[in-house]
Amino acid sequence: MPVKRGQQVTLQIEELTPKGDGLARVDGVEVVVRGTVPGDSVNAVVGRKRKGRVEARVVEVLQVRLPRREPPCSHFGTCGGCRWQNLSYSDQLQLKDEMVRRSLASRDIFPGEFRPALGSPSSLYYRNKMEFSFGRGAEGDLQIGLHVRERYNRVFDLEACYLQSELSNRVVDSVRRHAVASGLPVYDLRTHEGLLRFLVVREAKQGGGGLMVNLVVSQYPHEGIDNLVHAVTGEVPEITTFVVSLHTGKAQVASGEGGEFILTGGGHIVEECGGLQFQISPQSFFQTNTEQAGNLYLLIRELAGDMREMDVLDLYCGTGGIALHLARESRTVTGIEQTVKAVEDARLNAQRNSIENCTFIPGKAEDVLRESGKIEGKRFDLVVVDPPRAGIHKKVLWALGDLAPAQIIYVSCNAESLADDLAELMLAGYRVSVVQPVDLFPQTPHCEVVAALHRTDAPG
Q1: What residues are labeled active site?
Q2: Could you tell me if 189 and 313 lie in one domain?
């Protein structure tokens, strides 16, 4: 008999969903239970059905596998971000290990070596970038903060975020107070009227490279915006550059499509990572956890082995974070990236660090690989891939089979798509030698995963 809405059931939590929620089964029906982990036992009330699964709310905890603690953030449970703040950091790492292992095992992938998750040096205040949305409260009051969990049309007013620095929290508070005082209207998602849309704060965590604030609005030039910027920069003198981005489209993305206006400073900050400097502009991609990103790059270099005679291909190279670190050890590196602005940043970063053996090519990986002239018909000893969450494009997987490098290092932010792609690469003649989760996102269920693959007919 199927479970019904409003029914109370006793549930044994068996595993985690990719979003980090507990998952149980009743009469063959999958039940998602927030705030639980495998090994917990709870009484819960069945709620709505969503995407083929039933949701349930805990009414009584019968047994816990992992102890819970008081989360430091007052927004815990409302915010869609830090779902695991009530767990110790060591327990968070254990759960991330289990999530990755389960994803791999579901595709019959058992690496030669599975290394435990590499923990972040800092589990709080580690983010170098945060995006905030403007919204209206029930009484019409201006709010600035993050999205309510699973409610992307609702924003809660942020008191403080424990993933960003106190300086960044000061910026948010200053923008809120001066925006309220100015009476500037918030952009309305239904009517598509209003002015204030997003606030993005980026802070160089290492090397003293500055603090960049990017205000995304639907109209500019605008005297009220100029006054707001003047007030905030006067109150927070640590801001080294303030950018206003014009975004007139309906898409809810914290970026501008109508141009960027640099009101103070040079329009960028400079971050140090792994001994290299990176210029970061408003739309540049850079890992949000600077210190752990350096450890990620060290791991990739270690897995690559002796690179002195290697020609390396870096697919989905972004602004060159991986490529530039590998270039110091290898003969050549060729990076391919779809976003033209990211390629421009990668080239500038190579110049900034006096690295001359890197070539960056703009274009979709599947298109560039098909047009062999763009990579000069070269054969590569090592291919590094760091694709979007959806994984490697099928045409790229086929091209990798044709390129047949001796080694592939796959960096993934999604263990599910990673497992799918590894299964395909194994069919193409590769074995999975090493897998290690790397936690760049403490307090959340997300983590990076690094997998090293070798051709079965290659030495070593």
Answers
A1: 413
A2: no
